[in-house]
Amino acid sequence: MFTATGRGCIVLVLSGLLVGCASMHGKSSNSVCTDCESGTCQNACMECESCIAGANCESCNYGCDVKKGSDEWWAMQAEAPVGSRQVYKKGKMWPPYPRPTGPKQQFSHKYHAAHYWPYPYVCQDRAYVRNVMALQEDKGWQRLTTLFDYHFDEYTNELTHSGREQLIWILEEAPPKRRNQIYVQKIVGDGTNAARVETVRNALIELVGVESSGICIELKSGRNYGRPALEIDTIRKAEIESMPEPRINYTAPSTTEED
């Protein structure tokens, strides 16, 4: 027979075990809360009062109101970043450089990240390269659609023959999206710049008529890195004229025959 004191001890022991089990059920990250809607799991999730329902909270089994293995639970796990986690151990952070923290990725998500690596991280690099190439292309077309200083007469500011040919090339040969923007090299003297812009505008009216109203003419600072064809032709002609006649040293053999 058990005394009253003995019964009390047994009750206390059993109560302690039950409380301990409930506490362990609430704190274990591997346990599953299957009846959260009825409120029976509220005591198990007291430590997660500040945790929003369905949030990635480790003490509440990664979301007290989300059943492990459900679509919502997998969606929450998919938000975990790729890579090893930083942990604190023996007074040091391992590794010492910044790394993701929190729960590790699920195995299937690790496989997904490794299978499609380096996507999506390569997208930013590819976009940067495309932007650089687009900028280079745009600068090149700006140069090809620019009327430089040598395209104008030095005294009258009218288009020379080469300048008029360049303007016709822009209107007929350049890609359609590049024909609506023509640049004129900016030089010292506002009066000269304005006169040259007006010259180009009059030439456009003569060549394309009313369509010239949709073509923008803009002054552009910079220099031409080439040179006029006339200058190149003059240099080449001078080179040819100063070229010496070819000479080959030749010594005729002796006509005396030796016995």
UniProtKB/TrEMBL annotation:
Keywords (A to Z) from UniProt: Signal
Q: Which residues form the signal peptide?
A: 1-24
Protein name in UniProt: Uncharacterized protein
**What domain of life is recorded for the organism?**
Bacteria
The scientific name of the source species is Polystyrenella longa
